[in-house]
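Listing 4. Sequential folding, example run.
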Amino acid sequence: MQLKRKKPNFIPLALLAAVALCIYGFVQYMNYREGQPVERAEPTKYWNCILEKLPGTQSDVIAYQSVNLCLSQFGEGQDVAPRDKVGGLFSVPRAGECIERFGKQTGSNVAAQLIVAACNELYVQ
């Protein structure tokens, strides 16, 4: 009786290599960016870009790509103090409501963390 040999499954290895390559590329990009002068834009535009691009993101790789796009368009918005956004019928006046609204369908941990950060920067607790 001959035993059948199981074919090797290379999919997990390929996924690991893809993630490692994406992380390496992100690190290289960040190192390159540190040497470049950054034009400061209005910081709230960066966080609004995060809230526009990341909701519903299921992959960390796509989340990193979206963040890089927001960084290239608006620069980092890390220096903004939280502010109260009051307004019309569809406004989101509280950080908790913002997190619930924008983070509900998000499967990526990176995207979820950035959505929480953006909501905390743009809206009051």
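-- end of first protein; second protein begins --
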Amino acid sequence: GLSSMGYAEASATANVETFWIWVALFTLGIVGIAILFITSYQTQKMQQLHQSMFNKQLEMEKNQNLLLTNMSENIHDIAKQALEKSHHVIDKTSKSFRSKEKILSNVESRLLDVTNNLIDFLRLKSKKIEIVNEEFNINNVLNELSGTICSQFLGSQVELIFDIDKNVPRRLVGDSLHLGQTLKSLLEHIMDQGDIDEVKLEISKFDTFEEQVELQFQFSDAGRGLNAEELEDLFVPYYDEESSTYVGLGLYVAHELVNMMEGKLSVQSIEGKGSTFTLSLPFDVVDKSNHRMYRLPEKVLIEKKVFIVDTNYNSALAVKKMFAYFRHEVTVLSQEEFMKNIPNLTSFDIVVLHESFFTVRLVEYLSKIKMGKELKVVALNSLLKSDKESFVHEVIDAHLFKPLNQERVFEMIVNMYNIKVPAYMEEDKQDETKHVQVHRKDITETKGITQHSFSVFSGKNILIVEDNIINQKVLLSLLQHSGMSISIANNGQEAVDMVKENKVRFDLVLMDINMPIMDGYTATQMIRLDSQFDSMPIVSFTALVLESEIQKMFNSGINAFLAKPLNIGKLYTALSIYLADTEVAEPKKEEAEAKEVITYEGINIENGIKHANNSEALYLEVLKEFSTAYGTSDEIFTKLIQEHRYEQVKMLCVDMRGLTGTIGAEDMHTLINEVLNKILYKKYDLLVNYNEKYKLEIQTLNRSIRKYVAAA
């Protein structure tokens, strides 16, 4: 009995174990199936993701192909649009002559920007752009930025605000030229979006562990914003067929420059709410111990009571920050509150009001206060909207044009109270230059001017002071065959040294203002300190446009003012004012047409010049950069075909198709189209036949470019 019981228990135990084994096997089976399902699902997801990325890559390639393929056609379209817009402006009689001139200049600037972007694109391709670290004034960069952008978008209703922290250093060490170019590209992109009421640039300083500081430039708008796809492709340049315009070429160059300056450029955007571009860059500080960069020269100017009302409240708060820097007690009121009930202003020392608020009643009220106490009244307006004449009345002591920076507010306060500025601020007013005519009016344009026209100034010595290498080359190309002797200084300090060395007695100095190491204001003052140079004319050549900035130039000792971009008719007029021993007559028509037309094998020079804003100097620069970047591309072409890397062959040819069309290299353009046609139909075995053809064509093109450049 016991043995049978033991057997039954053993059997039951075995059954239980068998049961759990089956449960375990079943569970493992379920888990295995689940794992297979999940793995299969993930594989499918990965394949979908890979396909999506592949499609994205193809789309990006297609867009970039279109960018370069249509390079020449697009530049031609812009030139045509510019011409049409020019005629449209001329036909409209409602605008003043000066407004017409400004708009025509802005139209020319658009084509010039495209050409300059192309040059930078080529220079980046050939790794020719160098980053320099030189001392500069941040305010000069901001003034040039606001002047350029506000001229370009004149009449826009956008409120442009510069909101600058009080601890941002005045003088920095870095690359001011490429900083300005990057800020301009970002702001142009934002302004081009449309449907924006306000754009704010906030500038902040952050200390780093090193001896440097980091400046953060943050552009924010409340526009339409970007979706995820637009955000991803933002810094990838492409050609938009629908709008017939480039998208992102300027942003691409800006992004590359930021990387070269060891900075960071990022963008955040919410569709329907707006975008924020954040640029962070490292700089050295010139004077780390100088915590207050703008010291008012007299204590009586500190702790004034200031009242501010603007049409835009955020703008008023930014202006408040500028005045609060000087320990002023600042009150800001909204436009609505002010219009509802004008408060008692008798307790204030400075009243800052938007120009549109000056009614007859308000002017009478302010005049009455002025009879009993010293009250300074400042009229506020925007550079973007300043195409109309400013409101002028004896009650107004000063005009301020937004966007502002700390230095401009400092200068306004000092000028308004007629206080002399100490030398360390480098703003001493000079007596107007003796012995040389000061030409305060806008320089007029002499019509029919060509490169040959400048030979009338043969034998004269000119000093060009300019930090932008492209501007240097454009001026050199224009003037070097005139018989004049041309010298170049890269900044104000070099100019002062060259003038004072007296190795060359300069007949005229063409002076840029915004430059590193020493700006044009200071350089002019330093030259004028020596009376032996009283009779030497100095003509400024700058993008700064404010009346206060132009007045500052004349105060420093400048004789005349030329606005960028270069207008050769106006340059001719300026030179004729100061260099002609006798009055220079307008060039005869036949003189303008005297240049012999020479043909060069493989390249249509006339078409190439048309694509470069009709500027031979700019065209020469494009040709030189093309030769550097693609002059030996036949070696790459052959190597890629030998290695069967046909996708890379296609990309090289896409680059070449756009560029050869732009420079007028028609034979090379035709050959490249043949190669692309073979790639399109996957006739890769025929590509080897083009190795020798490509080599011969690029060599012919190189020879023609060398001959043309040498003869220019």
